[in-house]
Amino acid sequence: MAKITVPLELTEAQEQPTTAEVVIIGGGVMGMSIAWHLAERGITDIVVVEQAEFGSGSSAKPLGGVRANFSDPLNIALGRRSLEEFANFREKFGVDIMLNRVGYLFLGRNEQEKQNLEISVHEQRKQGVNSQMISAQDAAKLNPFLDPKSITAASFSPDDGWAAPSKVVEGYANGAKALGATLLNRTQVLDIQRTGTVIHSVTTNRGEIKTNSIICAAGAWSAEIGRLAGVPLPIEAVRRMIGITPQQAKPFPRIPFTLDLSTTLYFHNYQNALLLGISHLEKTGFCREYSYEWLKEFNAAASVFAPGLENPELAEGWAGYYENTPDKNAIIGQSEELPGFFYAAGFSGHGFLQSPAVGEIVADLYQGKESFVDASQFTAERFRTGGSLVSEVNII
């Protein structure tokens, strides 16, 4: 029952080059965004390697949320920048990403969550995000599945919504390839050769690529790539599962992407059905087998504030990975000990929505340019040196 979509397949076989200016490891939305942003600037001697099919890892979700309604100022800035690119994606890349700006609705069900939402909305509005606090009754008007008696407060950001990650991968990949980048699917990294502070090459199942620069965008597999390079990347894979109800002859009401902070339950429209999920308790590890065990937690949560969703009939489902870091926020940066090694991974559930902005930031890092924001708080060094961890409230 696992739903894994392959958004892009090369119709012609591409040979692996023996040299490259830069090798990007990971052919999902993050790797392809980085490839596009580099190629757009004239850096086209790029090889993107993907161990499976492009976009078949964490980018294989049927739909992915896009938003700027975070609590951390930098996360807000990344969300805003990315929303701008998503809004112009069809015109820029000729691909319909199914952008549907139904809004995001965060639910708070105690005083602490109410205060957190109020602080978040204040920070969002400072940065120009269209968000506001709304009452429980107004939340129920926006989403008739909700029981307003169970809600203390809510925040709503109408410019947010969802889009199709597979289509974004397709647009970036086709754009990067048209500019000269080489994209290699079914190509697994087996080793990275370095001497001291210098990278020499990347070895795959197809052979060796001589290069002095690597960008790791391997999602849940990034810790292993870091290990091969001798760069610690504290990322763990955690299985997440969703279910999709049967398609209805009469569509469900159009609702915002709705998330409950207390229980981590979330749901939104999917064609004439509903997509349902919860960040259920899972052990770390590379298991992507689908099961129904998440429904016990989902039903317990739904019974509290959305009783009409309890014990849902499911027509299909999907299992994939969160790529979690210790503080549940991204690691983006350049290794201090191995300057030719860059990384963008560990997004802990919000990588897709930040991918356009992160692609731009990594391209700036690679070129040694000042970016539109200072992303230094996201370097992996924060976990090694006792630096400040990132505090983000609006995640599940």
UniProtKB/TrEMBL annotation:
Keywords: Oxidoreductase. InterPro entries: FAD-dep_OxRdtase, FAD/NAD-bd_sf. GO terms for cellular component: cytoplasm. The keyword Oxidoreductase applies. Residues 22-365 form the FAD dependent oxidoreductase domain. SUPFAM superfamilies: FAD/NAD(P)-binding domain. Pfam families: DAO (PF01266). Transmembrane segments: none annotated. GO terms for molecular function: oxidoreductase activity. This is Sarcosine oxidase subunit beta. It comes from [Brevibacterium] flavum.
